[in-house]
């Protein structure tokens, strides 16, 4: 049997949040594109960037919620919550029972919760093991699938009917012996996602780039319309608006190196690190050029 949790409330709230963040990002982008650099533009562009990041994260969560399903047969229980599929063989399930009603039953919560969504992980105090949440209801309305390795928290639409179906199938002889495991698609198995050095290089490049943009926004209102290019033989003048090209060029290089490095990382990790390191150095050089021009 295949049981799907009630996802309607969680999807509605998620779509509402997604739309709100999208509007904030759009307003920030339009404000940034329509005005010269200034502290207000710095705030608007920062808000737009954070809103876009939040929208991407919520979109990822909503994709998982939309895919949620629990498949139960005599061989075991299969939990689908994109991008993962959790396979729990029947012989590994020690018990299936309602979750504890009191909030103190779990501690160390890490994850995302809003009305209609309860996904993440925590530690079960009494059972003394990890709890993985794949639910759309709060703790008192969840079912706990208890195994020796972990507890899986689910929320079928009809909990008692699901418990009865589980007991009926547990009494049957399995037709195949499954292995308790979690299956991810190929892209999610890439070593990149757990590579802290890779994230540090990309993050540092983004941080330097963003700092360069914010610094320009703080300085720009006090600049004259034309500024001299220091060190030029004939004291060339250029429009102060041309300074925007430096962080723009930095953003293009950062994005290109980030994507190319990601594609190379799985099989050519040193080359990927080299690309990200060069990208970080380019951000530093562009920041230095800006400081030299405006000193």
Automatic annotation (TrEMBL):
InterPro entries linked: Bacterial_PH-related (IPR027783)
Residue ranges of domain Bacterial Pleckstrin homology in the record: 69-169
Superkingdom of the organism of origin: Bacteria
Coiled-coil regions listed in the entry: none
Transmembrane segments: 12-31, 43-62, 197-216, 246-264, 271-294
Keywords attached to this entry: Membrane, Transmembrane, Transmembrane helix
Protein name: PH domain-containing protein
Species in which this protein is naturally found: Thermoflexus hugenholtzii JAD2
Lineage start: Bacteria, Bacillati, Chloroflexota, Thermoflexia, Thermoflexales
